[in-house]
Amino acid sequence: MNTDAKQTKSEQELSELEDSDIHQTKSKEQRSHMHDNESFELIALPQRKPIKAWVKGVPLEEEARRQLINLASMPFIHSHIAVMPDAHMGKGTTVGSVIPTTKAIIPAAVGVDLGCGMIAVKTDMKARDLPDDLKAVRKAIEDTIPVGFACWKDNMASSHPAEKKINKAWAGLTDRFDAIVEKHPHLDNGSLRCRLQIGTLGTGNHFIEMLTDDLGFVWLMLHSGSRGVGNRIGTYFIDLARKDMQKHHIHLPDRDLAYLSEGTEYFADYLEAVSWAQDYAYINRQVMLSLLMEALKKQKSIPAFQADLKVINCHHNYVAREVHFGENVWVTRKGAVRAQEGDWGIIPGSMGTGSFIVRGKGNAESFNSCSHGAGRTMSRAKAKQTISLDKHKRDTAHVECRKDVGILDESPSAYKSLDAVMKAQADLVDIVHRLKPLVCVKG
């Protein structure tokens, strides 16, 4: 029998086992695993590490449950897997999962939007001082920061507001990038494009928002990651991990669970590239926030304002070395935010719902983590098929944002209830502020 046939048979057998496991899990949950005093659902199955899921009151789709069961069978999972209440099916591994591993990392779990995350800052502006019509403000933001697939022009004048910021940011990244592409030339798609995507938003669920908190103060917030270069790095090493599995005849329940082991050819190079991409994403958000504040200060309709010295800038798609339960492990947060005791975090909802500013409680069982948002209830394709433009307009009537069919996959109905998500993780974070959206610019 050839390798492909063996793989197919293995996957078929595993699928049958999983179906049985899911039924067993439901039965066990009904009997013993969802007592009222428990904050998480425990999924404990033979030959798998436990799964602790903070999903009380929030639906966890069967596809995501199946992915988690697959993941729990991997031999290098540490003590257990933690699942956040915004969890939903992802590529290979579930979005909204915290994956501690020993001596191995799954590149597809870290993903391709390396270092994707949030940045937010509180201003001394009050929402009552803003104009009633914020359309001009939204246009000013869209004119200032490239969104979607757009990036900066390579012939920008030296006097352009972004030029100095981009050059300064790239100067701190270029030497490390050159060292990475020297070892892996396939990652070099031209340093010029990497530089020109600093300070740009990107596509999908990336956004820029103005919001107001419970005291009436205006916050500025945005969501973005490592842009094209992060995608290229993630995709490249996912492919290398798959080739490693084939080379060593390692059969997996899902090809996206291909991993790189410590001491193997590409492990250190992957960490080097991922670390660089995470820094790129962090800096990218800083540059955009700076450009956003400058653009708003130029608007005659916006009162003069100052921003808080404290800026919250947190990843929610990344890997880091941490100590948990007395052991050094690699922690992959695939759609999750670090919530150590005292950590500030941002949990956004949909474009019509708003967001929460939170402070971590340091819950050890969650590996000091919390959700990274509300989580999707349906795929982008399904959202476009089922959400009407009229419904989108009703659900976003209070927000200055796009009201066209091209944005239906990001409409509020495509996401879970943020209130339910926050209730399910009450033992992971304290709520500091609830933010309501005023303006939303989507990628």
Short description:
The protein is an alpha+beta fold and 443 residues long. It has twelve helices and 17 strands. The chain is globular and about 65 Å long.
Question: Helices, strands, pairings?
Answer:
Blueprint: H1 3-33, E1 41-43, E2 51-53, H2 62-72, E3 81-88, E4 95-101, E5 104-105, H3 107-110, E6 117-126, H4 135-144, H5 163-171, H6 174-183, H7 191-196, E7 207-212, E8 217-224, H8 227-247, E9 260-261, H9 267-297, E10 307-315, E11 317-324, E12 327-334, E13 336-338, E14 344-348, E15 355-360, E16 369-371, H10 380-386, H11 389-395, H12 418-424, E17 429-442
Helix pairs in contact: 1-2, 4-9, 6-9, 8-9
So, CATH architecture? Alpha-Beta Complex
Mean pLDDT equals 91
Main beta-sheet strand count, sense and barrel state: 7 strands, antiparallel
Q: What is the CATH class designation?
A: Alpha Beta
> What would the CATH topology be?
tRNA-splicing ligase RtcB
Radius of gyration: 22 Å
Q: DSSP helix count?
A: 12
Task: List how many beta strands DSSP finds.
Answer: 17
Structural class: alpha+beta
Quote the beta fraction: 15-25%
* Helical residues, percent: 25-40%
What's the N-to-C terminus distance? Answer: 48 Å
CATH superfamily: tRNA-splicing ligase RtcB
Described by the principal axes of the CA atoms, the overall outline is: globular
Unreliable stretches (pLDDT < 50, length at least 5) are 1-32
Count of discrete structural domains = 1
Q: Largest sheet, order of strands side by side?
A: 10-6-8-7-17-15-14
Q: Write the H/E string, N to C.
A: HEEHEEEHEHHHHEEHEHEEEEEEEHHHE
